């Protein structure tokens, strides 16, 4: 009788649904970390989306993804209507209602989801310069990917941009002198050139912009589920870099 009760209890535990983490993501694509706008690309949802799916499983959580406009995303995190937000940078204003990974009272960048850097690439025989603000000797436009945030950044800097649909198209335009430079996520650009070492392309320094992005939790969720929050942050730190190396090639020319 006692053995039957234990077996029944074990079967019940195995059948019990996993606890759910409600995670918000902005409804705009930011390749390669999230592809698709109001819906996720089923084949290539994004590197960080895949990472969150993996680490949620490892922490025994079911992941409920909500795609929301930016302003609503922050409001629902503040109200506790969602538990966490994927890929949010740190600010003191956000830290008033969102809990970020900390260590010794400081932001723990080791437990970030990703560091997003946009960099410029130019032909090796180009005289183009870059000082972090200006592009001396720029004669043609800078290539970018359609719909990426870098377009607005370049516009604010007064740098003319010309869009294309993929990494491959932009590097082809650069190699054939149809654009003078290409602004793209460093992880994508470096991976593409690693697979095409014969291209006469060089990377310009410094990056146009660099910032760590995190998985912050609502204060309500962090207070009620501190173990789950730590499990996810620690799993992200362990898995992030290896997942990038393993999956980046699949995103070189993935489209939204």
From TrEMBL:
Signal peptide, first to last residue: 1-18
Q: Which UniProt keywords apply?
A: Signal
SUPFAM superfamilies in the record, alphabetically? Periplasmic binding protein-like II
Establish whether keyword Signal is in the entry. yes
- Annotated Pfam families: SBP_bac_3 (PF00497)
Keyword set includes Membrane: no
Gene3D superfamilies, per database record: Periplasmic binding protein-like II
Query: Which part of the chain is the Solute-binding protein family 3/N-terminal domain?
Result: 27-97
The record's annotation in PANTHER family points to:
L-CYSTINE-BINDING PROTEIN TCYJ, MEMBRANE-BOUND LYTIC MUREIN TRANSGLYCOSYLASE F
- Protein name, as recorded: Transporter substrate-binding domain-containing protein
Origin organism is Chromobacterium paludis
């Amino acid at each position: 009788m006692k053995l039957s009760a234990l077996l029944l209890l074990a079967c019940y535990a195995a059948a019990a649904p996993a606890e759910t983490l409600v995670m918000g993501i902005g409804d705009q694509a930011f390749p390669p970390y999230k592809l698709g706008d109001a819906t996720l690309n089923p084949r290539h949802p994004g590197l960080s989306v895949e990472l969150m799916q993996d680490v949620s499983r490892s922490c025994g959580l079911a992941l409920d993804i909500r795609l929301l406009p930016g302003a609503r995303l922050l409001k629902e995190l503040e109200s506790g209507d969602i538990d966490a937000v994927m890929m949010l940078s740190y600010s003191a204003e956000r830290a008033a209602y969102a809990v970020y990974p900390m260590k010794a009272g400081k932001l723990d960048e080791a437990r970030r989801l990703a560091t997003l850097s946009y960099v410029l690439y130019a032909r090796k025989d180009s005289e183009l310069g870059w000082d972090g603000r200006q592009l001396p000797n720029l004669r043609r436009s800078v290539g970018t990917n359609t719909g990426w945030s870098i377009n607005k950044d370049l516009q604010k800097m007064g740098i003319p941009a010309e869009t294309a649909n993929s990494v491959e198209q932009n590097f082809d335009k650069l190699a054939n002198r149809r654009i003078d430079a290409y602004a793209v996520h460093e992880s994508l650009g470096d991976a593409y050139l690693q697979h095409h070492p014969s291209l006469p392309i060089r990377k310009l320094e410094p990056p146009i912009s660099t910032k760590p992005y995190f998985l912050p939790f609502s204060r309500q969720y962090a207070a009620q589920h501190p173990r789950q929050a730590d499990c996810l942050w620690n799993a992200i730190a362990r898995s992030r870099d290896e997942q990038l190396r393993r999956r980046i090639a699949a995103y070189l020319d993935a489209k939204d």
